[in-house]
Automatic annotation (TrEMBL):
PROSITE patterns: RHODANESE_3
Keyword Cell membrane set for record: no
UniProt keyword list: ATP-binding, Cytoplasm, Metal-binding, Molybdenum cofactor biosynthesis, Multifunctional enzyme, Nucleotide-binding, Transferase, tRNA processing, Zinc
Principal cellular location given in the protein's record: cytoplasm
SMART domains tied to this protein: RHOD (SM00450)
Annotated InterPro entries: Rhodanese-like_dom, Rhodanese-like_dom_sf, ThiF/MoeB/HesA, ThiF_NAD_FAD-bd, Ubiquitin-activating_enz
Entry GO terms, CC: cytosol
Lineage of the species this protein comes from: Eukaryota, Metazoa, Chordata, Craniata, Vertebrata
Name of the featured protein: Rhodanese domain-containing protein
């Protein structure tokens, strides 16, 4: 017998599954999550408040979701959010009630700050808790979300074979000192842990948002590589990240930018990223 559900999952299909099970059984859902140096907490399906589907009627595209295995998390952040999650469970169980039924509590570990955002109310059109629900039993949530219900690292496949190189192939390129640019698209906090010495760090988010300062730096480095080249061919840019997922997204961004926002480049992703480099090229390279 249970009265309250605490969701500590790290993948989208499980979140929809747990939410729907709570709505169908009439149980409150205390949900907490953490990524990198940020945490979030809220209580769904509580005293007329919204459920998870009210806020997210449709799952996000799988390639846009970052879980802890992909993006990493500072270990103390899940501990902090877990304590607050346990606090809300105890408050609800003891009859004191929760103030997070229509509030999203956000924690920024970098600046040690909390802030609270008011959530929109329960939606009459919600597929599971609305006035005319269409979800009346649990369904295939992996099919619904288009992704696996696992917390393990994902392996995206967004590029063609000719847009990717193995770590062995890139090692050969390095050894032959061919003029090129190595672009590391991880967040700075990860780059500070470890990086290849010749790499230029521009986070994927900065590329996607067209950060003017970072784009200017990128143009400068591309120009420097161009001066080292003896031919008029496009500048080769090899993109790396931790696992080879964000680097694929960055290649797609660079392709859209090439010739307009940056000088013409040929961008390729390094398969498996720095963890593949550590496993297959340099066993002394830090793994995290």
């Amino acid at each position: 017998m249970y009265n309250i559900v605490a969701d500590c999952s790290d993948n989208v299909p499980t979140r929809y599954l747990v939410n729907d099970a709570c709505v169908l059984s009439g149980k409150p859902l205390v949900s907490a999550s953490a990524l990198r140096m940020e945490g979030q907490l809220t209580v769904y399906n509580y005293r007329g408040g919204p459920c998870y589907r009210c806020l997210y009627p449709k799952p996000p595209p799988p390639e846009t979701v970052t879980n802890c295995s992909d993006g990493g998390v500072l270990g103390v952040v899940p501990g902090i959010m877990g304590c607050f999650q346990a606090l809300e469970v105890l408050k609800i169980a003891s009859g004191q009630g929760s103030s997070c039924g229509q509030q999203l509590l956000m924690f920024d570990a970098q600046d040690v700050k909390f802030r609270s955002i008011r959530l929109r109310p329960k939606q009459a059109s919600c597929a599971v808790c609305g006035e005319n629900p269409t979800v009346t039993h649990l369904v295939d949530y992996e099919k619904f979300c288009g992704s696996a219900a696992t917390d393990k690292c994902r392996r995206l496949n967004l590029l063609s074979k000719d847009q990717r190189v193995s770590v062995q192939e890139y090692k050969s390129i390095m050894d032959h000192t061919a003029a090129h640019l190595l672009l590391d698209v991880r967040p700075l906090v990860e780059v500070d842990i470890c990086h290849l010495p010749t790499s230029l760090n521009i986070p994927l988010s900065s590329l996607e948002n067209r950060n003017s300062e970072h784009i200017h730096v990128l143009k400068e480095r591309i120009g420097q590589v161009k001066e080292q080249m003896s031919s008029e061919s496009q500048v080769p840019v090899y993109v790396i990240c931790k696992l080879g997922n964000d680097s694929q997204k960055a290649v797609q961004v660079l392709e859209r930018m090439s010739g307009s926002e940056v000088d013409c480049v040929t961008a390729k992703d390094i398969c498996g990223g720095l963890m593949a480099w550590a496993q297959k090229i340099d066993p002394s390279f830090p793994q995290y």
